[in-house]
Fold these 3 entries.
Entry 1:
Amino acid sequence: MGAFHAYDIRGVWGRDFDGQTAYKVGYFIPGLLGTDKVLVGRDCRLSSDEIHDNLLRGICDAGADVYDIGLSSTPMVYFATAFYGFKASVQITASHNSREYNGMKVSRENALPVGLETGLGQILEWIQTDRPTPLAAKRGEVHSKEIMADYLEFMSKFKKDLSSLKIAFDLSNGMANLFAKQVFGDAPTYLFDTLDGSFPNHDPNPLVAANVEPLKKAVRELGCDVGVIYDGDADRVMFVDDKARFVSPDLVIALMASYFCDERGEKSPRVLQEIRSSKAVGEYLASYGAEMHTWRVGRAFAAPKLREIDGLWGGELAGHYYFKDFFYSDSGLLASMIVLGIVAGLKKQGRTLSEKMDELTRYKNSGEINFRLEDKAGAMKAVCDLFSSEQKPLTVMDFDGFRLEFEDWWFNIRPSNTEPYLRFICEAQSEEKLAQKVSEAQKLLETRFDAKRV
């Protein structure tokens, strides 16, 4: 059962999980979440129909009814779960992973995520212990449910006049194709604008630099003001500026103050960032009197935390952005609407997105570096001990790995929740200090833990 992770169920279809797993997940969800109605959506992956059929059979055999919204982005499922008051939902997707992967994202009432610590672990235990799955006295039924009209009406209040902008979109052959042209019209340039679960043009992961190259090329050649790229299930979005440079997703958290604070007039907002975010985010938002909260990586942690602090918005380095206005959930579409509105406002002022991002970029950043090694806990402790012995840290965060902050630099080291990697990220005021600290960490990991940088 290698498909059960901290945030969701995900793995290579036919290897890490199969139809029987999907059936049992469906069977156990109604009892786990105390409901007789389960909302279900699916992405366009080649295996999604088979998973869908097994999942629905399990839900119905347990005596619950299915409300099937068909092909959908993951945020559409979050919307429908909260908007219509469902107590349970499942989106069949593997998000940004390549074509051989698939999985399921489970949500409870108010679109709160169900992770390993909040329910998926219980389902895994029931599967592993062969908990019986007797047919209910009255088998559930499947109902088709149309949500697109309500979804687009809900999102329309965030739409701005973008007619002054030249925009290029990369829809990644994924679920953004369901709504992009309806929302943004025919004027933009669209790349890979057909639904195709084989992802023939590139993997639907905007964090891999090669996957963003077609968008960068379009921005350069067409002279666009901005480029937008969604991942496979459209819960994540990333941007390319007018100079065809990739915009670091954590800095977009800071950029969004232009909408929430400057435009809407929100005072002293509560904002959520994750443990890998640049120090520049908090420093910039401090000028708005923002109350910054730092927390763990992943929707299973971020969405409940934003609700707990009653935050207005938040984000992650992976391109997830969470909004109180969207049921404290993440939405690639809403994030792109907000950012494009900001870019349109900048253009009216005679400014560009690249100029604004240069203003927000205050540090030199390594980006996340992955090391493959066995003793993750020992390696994390060794790196922390190394740097703490050189200089006493000003701040220590000990959740989701460790983040140690010093006067002119910081680092975070954490184990991946979904891959066999230890992840290291470092930021400093100078290129020299950054290179020095990355080199020290890499040398320690390679010599003491036989780590391989990947």
Entry 2:
Amino acid sequence: MSDSFSASVEVRYGWVVVWASLVLNAIALGAPTLLFVALKPIAADLGGERWVPSFAYSLLMVGTGIGGVAMGWWMDKRGIIQPILFGSVMICLGSLVASQSEGRWGFWVANGLLIGLLGKAAMIAPLVANATRWFDRRRGLAIAIIASGQGLAGAVWPTVFGHLEGAVGWKETYFYYAVFAAVTMLPLCWLIRPRPPAAPPGPIRLAAARGGKVLEWPPELVQGAMWLAVIGCCGAMAMPIVHLVAHTSDLGYAEERGAEVLSVLMVAGFFSRIAFGMLSDRIGAAPTLLIGSACQLVMMIVFSMVESLTGLYVAALLFGLGFAGIMPCYPLLLRLWFPVSEIGWRVGAQYMFAGAGMAIGGTLAGYIFDVTGSYAPAFLSGVAFNAMNFMLIAMLHLRSRSLGLSPRAV
């Protein structure tokens, strides 16, 4: 490897950016977490059908994905501070509007437009894309830490929201969350404001620059395959995450137990995601993603079968250990195969299709339950989504290996 490839972009302040991004992301994830923790009481107040709050979650995820492309472009042009400040304010405003909702349309607007499209859209894709410019040698670990905001949020918010919703109701819980978000998120944005150092040249650009092709294929083909892959993994992923609390309650256990099961899943995901990030720095993003995809597929089958409370805890733990390794790998693959000048909008677009997958999976599981009265068929339908993900990523990985490209950034 040449000396230019030995240069590193990493500086100490990059870790300040990473940890501040982690906490900011975890706080922002309180909004969707509250939605599915309180899914049953929200449904009861808004007409009695579970597809109504499930659809609100779908709107939130689709809005997050679409907005993420614009937020990524905004970050590329003006830096990270403007989009994350704007997004933080919108999350707070959307939560306030949700707390005052009297019907389904107001609740949908609060979640889809304010919290999703204009708020949460700035919290993951721009933060992750920004981090890829601060790191090269430990990029996988850095991205995994930020993405672990999902696990950190899952460790804290379900239990907090479960008790608070039971005490004061879901509307007041939204209000208290909005106030907390306002006093914590805005100061964190200030820590993330510096621009990253200029990136040294590296092997990433060699892999992406051969005749304008990626993996010796048209870039649109590779990008399209990655979009379909992320729809597959997220379609499956959303089913237990969105409906696990309700599923536990349907099996005869208290909603607090369901919140605890979800917390177990998210806590396992928090630690596993960091471990997977370190693994991706060693073996590459594609092999790491395939391991996570295989684990998630197996556990979707398990969720369709288990009914005991102990079994739910164990299944949640194992699912959390597996699914967490998937999402941080996509920005790593984009950074590996595509030019750095395109990283902002490509990461945003990848998360847009991830949001579409979450939206499809979350709503489909709710619809299947309404038709069948059981979540088991819904979880089994997720196996097909997951199989599509595994096959597409395996195809891209085998193509990369056949071309002799390194699976790692450095």
Entry 3:
Amino acid sequence: MASITIRNLDDEVKTRLRVRAASNGRSMEEEARRILADAVERRTAPANGLGTALHELFKPYGGVELELPPRDPMREPPRF
């Protein structure tokens, strides 16, 4: 197993880490290991895309019905 040293750690960060570790019943070292492991854990891609996620987010607010403009016939492509 590897070990690391963290230099210039802010006193407030160390205090908060100590309190967090105590509230979870762990040592500061174990708490830091868990935080680091969670931070670098490989995240899987979401099952849905961005559009679906946005739709689900705003679904409770209702939708908007937009009137679609009439479509014109296609133009003739240019001839070279």
